[in-house]
Input
Amino acid sequence: MNTFSGTRANPIRVAIIGSGPSAFYTAEFLLSNPDAVVEVDMFERLPTPFGLVRGGVAPDHPKIKTVTRAFERTAQHERFRFFGNVTFGHDLIYPDIAARYHAVVYAVGAQTDRQLGIPGEDLLNSHAATEFVAWYNGHPDFRDLAFDLSQERVAVIGNGNVAVDVARILARTPDELRQTDITDHALEALAGSRVREILVLGRRGPAQAKFTSAELKELGSLADADVVINPAELELDPLSAEYLRSGESKTAARNYAILQGLSRAGQNGKRRRIVLRFLVSPVELLGSDRVEAVRVVKNEICERGHFMSPCPTEDYETIPVGLVFRSIGYHGVPLPGVPFDDQQGIIPNKRGRVINEHGERMRGEYAVGWIKRGPVGIIGSNKPDAQETVEMLLRDMAFHQHFCPANPAREAIDRLLRQRGIHYTTYEDWRVLDQLEIERGLAVGRPRRKFTRVEDMLSALEAVHHAPVL
Ligand code: NAP
Output
């Protein structure tokens, strides 16, 4: 058995799977810990890092993306390495990790969408909003999808921030979009869009909507889209009124005031309309082969435990729409050989320590971010979450609760990947791609033009590495 004490000569070696915010915060806490020397290797399926900061954050929200500056500092640490284009479960499997590291942290996020479970959900022109988001942000797995933007009326189902992002991107003018790093293919498709009306359907009331206030407010300042809210749908039932009065949620109170303002502002003859509807649950998507309408049941708010639930009435409505985006949340995907809770879509864990179906701790295995706690919270929520996981990991190290790697040498993993013929990218490679994307953007007056195919990224790197030195 290998002994170690987290010293320079014998550091703690940690593999992190994934490279989004929770992965980078985990790396930061591990590397800055004063009590033990830790080396971090981060493995990412794509050649590029940053997970949803690159593939999820809306292109018209560049400020949110500046969080990568902090990740950049972490990546400069001498005990940090990035291995891109390496898929866990395929290029690298659990025994490979356990043989070379003292611990592994799964930071893979929630990679698919939740399902509505209603008839017609799989009709043509019904899409997961998460796919649309990944498409316009240039995630290589989704860049070849097509969305029928010849439809004039679109429904976005859900009242979270992703629903707002999708509605806003559909409503923006080509000029607004051109100022962002939205991908070329999305810019072109959206420039030809015939969408006129975007209905955002919330199953609960205006007091329970999950939007954050800044995102909601932003809808009121789009160049060529009005926001429409039927004042009758803003009338509060007694439970919601009491909830707002109680001051329990500042966001809910702020949101409600913003919604009232948006409703009062009315329409200003702009080309597009975003219509916010409340207390309606889709029960069926109708159409022979493609979506033609969404049938909804009207809800009332009723109390179930401490939760203000949507309770269906006898009242139904059929709303003609030609395109549907289901934006009801993300869902985690299992990793080969790692415990998984199907219902919640997470790796079962206690404060970040992975447990199996019998509730037993899996030595050396940890989870962080959305795959640990479910797909909730903003980027910053991952910081305390990562801190907790790192605390558990380091505490376990002190009690020798870790993998006992047969081959903990730093170069062992490079050797293995090379033997397997895996063309991994380094953090330096990412910096090259980053610079190339910015230069490609500059040439046409845009902030960035992303590479959206893995092969394009790899051949761009190849060209740079083999360019003659002048
Ligand atoms: P979310 O915030 O959980 O919202 C999901 C929405 O779907 C809720 O309104 C939910 O209603 C609704 N829903 C769930 N099941 C439904 C069903 N069967 N029928 C109808 N509606 C249903 O999820 P999200 O929008 O995917 O966002 C995920 C996380 O990322 C959130 O924490 C979000 O704040 C964050 N995010 C942040 C930003 C930003 O900061 N700019 C941008 C994007 C995402 P109920 O409330 O009734 O459950």
Observations:
- Residues 116, 157-163, 165, 202-204, 208, 210, 212, 215, 281, 327-330, 375-378 surround NAP (CB under 6 Å).
